[in-house]
Amino acid sequence: MKRALLGLCGVAEQSMAHRLEELERRRQAALHAGSETAVERQHSRGKMTARERLDYLLDPGSFQELDMLARSRAEGASEDKRSYTDGVVTGFGTVDGHRICTFSQDFTVNGGTLGEVSGEKIHKVIDLATSLGVPLVGINDGGGARVQEGVVALHYYGGIFRRNVAASGIVPQISVIMGSCAGGAVYSPAITDFVFMVQGTSQMFITGPDVVKTVTGEDVTLEELGGALTHATKSGVASFVAPDEKSCLDQVRQLLAYLPANNVSMPAVLPTADDPDRPVPELADLVPGSSQQPHDMKELVRAVLDDGEFFEYHALWALNIVCGFGRIGGRAVGVVANQPQVLAGVLDIDAAEKGARFVRTCDCFNIPVITLVDVPGFMPGTDQEHGGMARRGAKLLYAYCEATVPKIQLIVRRAYGAAYVVMGSKSLGADLAYAWPGAELAVVGPESAVDLLYSSELAGAPPERRRELVDAYREANANPYLAAERGYIDDVIEPASTRRVLHQALEMLASKRQEAPARKHGNIPL
After folding, report:
1. What are all long-range contacts of 187-190, with beta carbons under 8 Å and residues at least 24 apart?
2. SS3 assignment, position 326
3. Is residue 412 part of a domain?
């Protein structure tokens, strides 16, 4: 009897050892699902594999893979098309200690195309991110819907889109484009909060160059049609662009440091050696006295942020407005600022949409918004009016009115007409509004006001007379004290005290609570 029991134990041990060997064999098959040739081809294009990207992005040893052993169950699929993982690696891990969920499409397996099983895997990881309340990072490098699986693949794309929309405003969603992203595959990244692209190896387009040539007769390359620089400078689809994949993933890590895990969490307050109350005397000479002279608003932004660190959003698109993340006293803030160096800082269609998207993103994730104003007005012209300036410009004011996070406005120099109102003014709900002593708040600039009010007197008058009237109008009507008297701004501050004032305002507003009215949702002018 005893021998029999020992024999059974031996069989069990052998059986378990065999099973562990079988598990390891399958795991290794999943870890090396792509052929050596496919991996070499990927590397030759300056691209990492799906797993190499995750290894670089995530903290060492933190990745827990899900559905590693999933395989295609499409009818008629050959064994070599039924590779483990089905062309996408999914799971969770940490970035600088913060939990995230992630997926990474594997171009070495079925070209990273989406089918039923890979679609199910992405569905599951988006659902997991939403239920856990953690950011989702999706690395896209695939050939779109798997043609062999037809409408099934399209159905699973629809499920991804629906989940992206359901998660929108609940957890940060980050799309990293590291290869081709075509057709319906473009829409998932377009729904997400941030899109990263890599120069030379990333493309996004609804219809490819061949279709464009057939339908419109245009000859266009992949890069011209949907490359990183095209989407960073023209379409505004790409929020961030990097020269290579590692730099791109470094940027993703940098962005995640500013974001909370979800919409009910607050961004981390980090320790800083940069005294939040330090004076910034250089600001007094940064802005020229003449409103006709440009200055670089980014210098002002960096001067007031902790350690001069500014993570710019859409740095190559709509350059007449500057948006990005930084910290003051360790607190994450979103900065929106006019850029007088480009188009004199006017608001046009692209600037309004860029600013509106950024303000709404900050509002989703509890990041205070600081608005620095030096705006001469809206861009005139038939292309702007016919392009929908009224409707599309209204997106920016809608975003400010809707936002419930702390909002602080600082008028640096010009604040003319409706553009002043739209740039996060007190009338749109700014919690606190400040101005520098040289700020000009008026319906139009002093020069335009004088030309309008004194047109008869100026006819035939010497230039000196116009200058006198302009100076008199500026002194009497275009100054911050009239607005301060009425409470439209809360204080006129010295430029050198800007960082201290903003820091104290942020500290005070940290406990702000504002409930949105009960409704299904507003109807932003899209």
Report:
1. 187/157, 187/161, 188/138, 188/140, 188/157, 188/160, 188/161, 188/164, 189/138, 189/140, 189/237, 190/237
2. strand
3. yes
Amino acid identity for residue 360 in this structure: R
In this structure, the answer to whether residues 152 and 99 fall within a common structural domain is yes
Using CB atoms within 10 Å of the CB of residue 120, give its burial: 0 to 12 exposed, 13 to 18 middle, 19+ buried: middle
Range of the domain at 424: 281-439+479-509
pLDDT band, very low/low/confident/very high, at 340 (cuts 50, 70, 90): very high
Q: What is the pLDDT of residues 152-191, one digit of tens each?
A: 999 999 999 999 999 999 999 999 999 988 888 899 999 9
AA letter at 364:
C
Does some domain include residue 63? yes
Residues 305 and 433 in one domain: yes
Tell whether pTM > 0.85: yes
CA angle 299, 305, 309 (to 5 degrees): 80
Rounded mean pLDDT, 376-399: 94
pLDDT score of 183 = 82
SS3 sequence, 410-475? EEEEEEEHHHHHHCCCHHHCCCEEEECCCCEEECCCHHHHHHHHCHHHHCCCCHHHHHHHHHHHHH
Task: Let me know whether 226 and 104 are in one domain.
Answer: yes
Number of domains observed in the structure of the chain: 2
Nearest to 301 by CA among 375, 157, 410: 410
pLDDT at residue 53 above 70? yes
Give me the sign of the Cα torsion angle 27, 33, 37, 42: negative
